[in-house]
Write a structure and sequence with these properties.
This protein is α/β, with parallel strands linked by helices. It folds into 2 domains: 170 residues, Peroxisomal Thiolase, Chain A, domain 1 (3-Layer(aba) Sandwich), CATH 3.40.47; 150 residues, Peroxisomal Thiolase, Chain A, domain 1. The chain has 11 helices and 13 strands. The strands form 4 sheets. The protein has a 5-stranded mixed beta sheet with strand order 1-7-6-4-5, with helices on both faces. The protein has a 4-stranded mixed beta sheet with strand order 8-13-12-11, sandwiched between helices. The relative contact order is 0.19. Bound molecules: acetyl coenzyme *A. The site of acetyl coenzyme *A has 23 residues, from helix 2, helix 6, helix 8 and strand 12. Acetyl coenzyme *A binds next to helix 2, helix 6, helix 8 and strand 12.
């Protein structure tokens, strides 16, 4: 008997039109195009006009996904938003999106897993489909990172951009869909990458603002080493458990944090360039949005077909680690 699986049946994305190039950043902090390109692979990133909430990127991405599937917002049962830049600390951005979209029947919630947010949210959405509880789940990865970047900190501000991606999950009873997932958390890494103030531990005060504690803080080299190790480890474990090796993978869609992290994992799995999506040059690290944006790049470049084995992998603040293995279902793309 065929198993009921959750399939990605539509995808929509939204990135702001405004572009911040490496040359622009040379005028803001002590950096150079050459340093950023060679250390990270980033050439430019798309950034919102200041004051734009994350939901303003999510809603067009969600509408695009629904249009491609020929469905209205009232068809949605559930909205899951992965983000570390919610419109407000509460209510959840999923609630704001539900209202703006007019998704009258949907409930929803946010997921805080930073750069691993999309694989985590996808896995959660898939459970509701597999159990038969729901038929249409919207899974979103979106961040307005520029709202939490310190443009006096050259080690951090050059890395990130803004963007959103939304996929629709629906049940299918064929060989396609989400096959398996593997997620980990290592909370001992919380000190290496975080936004220190504004939560219950350090509520906002004049001092926290003066000390620039409402921005992303990180020890980049430590994060880099952890990510290199965990990207390959997580991906390989998931493949092994499903009796696959790197050669079986048709498309590796890695979180776009640093081209050197992606290429280290690519090398370890023995994947040729044709099987690895890289668009960090154009968008930078958009945190929860990188994987849906990379899927869009793969579709633009006609690099994924129905039945292909697709591996999604991310590592992020927490530390969080997530991989999802799926057989691509084939979707409308225009
Ligand atoms: N421009 C010019 N010089 C810079 C810049 C910059 N933007 N940033 C740092 N430098 C300097 C440093 O000050 C340092 O100089 P020093 O030796 O005189 O002190 C030198 O460059 C080397 O710094 P490192 O931190 O050792 O450089 P590294 O090669 O590790 O690259 C980077 C730094 C790009 C941040 C890297 O560590 C990295 O990508 N880390 C992962 C961070 C990350 O991706 N965080 C995002 C979220 S987590 C995730 O998505 C996985």
């Amino acid at each position: 008997m065929s198993q009921r699986r959750a399939c990605i049946t539509a995808l929509g994305t939204c990135v702001p039109e405004r572009v911040l190039t490496n040359a622009d950043l040379e005028g803001i902090v002590d950096t150079s195009d050459e340093w950023i390109r060679t250390r990270t692979g980033i050439e430019r990133r798309h950034v919102v006009e200041p004051g734009t909430p994350t939901s303003d990127l999510i809603v067009p991405a969600a509408r695009e996904a629904l249009r491609r599937r020929g469905l209205g917002p009232e068809s949605l049962d559930l909205i899951i938003v992965a983000t570390v830049t919610p419109d407000m600390i509460f209510p959840a951005t999923a609630c704001i999106v539900q209202d703006k979209l007019g998704a009258s029947r949907a409930w929803g919630f946010d997921v805080s897993a930073a750069c691993s947010g999309f694989p985590y949210a996808l896995t959660m959405g898939a459970q509701f489909i597999q159990t038969g509880a729901h038929r249409r789940v919207l899974v979103v990865g979106a961040d307005v990172m520029t709202s939490i970047l310190d443009y006096e900190d050259r080690k951090t501000c050059v890395l990130f951009g803004d963007g959103a991606g939304a996929v629709l999950l629906e049940p299918r009873e064929d060989e396609t869909g989400i096959l398996d997932f593997s997620h980990q958390v290592d909370g001992s890494g919380a000190c290496y990458l975080n936004l220190p103030a504004g939560g219950s531990q350090r509520p906002a005060t004049h001092e926290t603002v003066d000390q620039r504690l409402h921005y992303v803080h990180q020890q980049g080299a430590h994060v880099f080493k952890y990510a290199v190790r965990k990207f390959a480890e997580s991906a390989e474990q998931l493949l092994l458990r499903n009796d696959f090796t790197g050669t079986d993978v048709d498309l590796f869609v890695a979180h776009q944090a640093n081209i050197r992290i992606i290429e280290a994992a690519q090398q370890r799995m023995g994947l040729p360039d044709s099987k690895v999506v890289k668009n960090i040059n154009e968008y930078g690290n958009t945190t929860a949005a990188t994987i849906p944006l990379a899927l869009a790049t793969a579709l633009d470049e006609k690099r994924v077909d129905r039945g292909d084995l697709v591996l999604l992998t991310a590592v992020g603040a927490g530390f969080t680690v997530g991989s999802v293995l799926l057989r691509w279902s084939g979707i409308a793309w225009d």
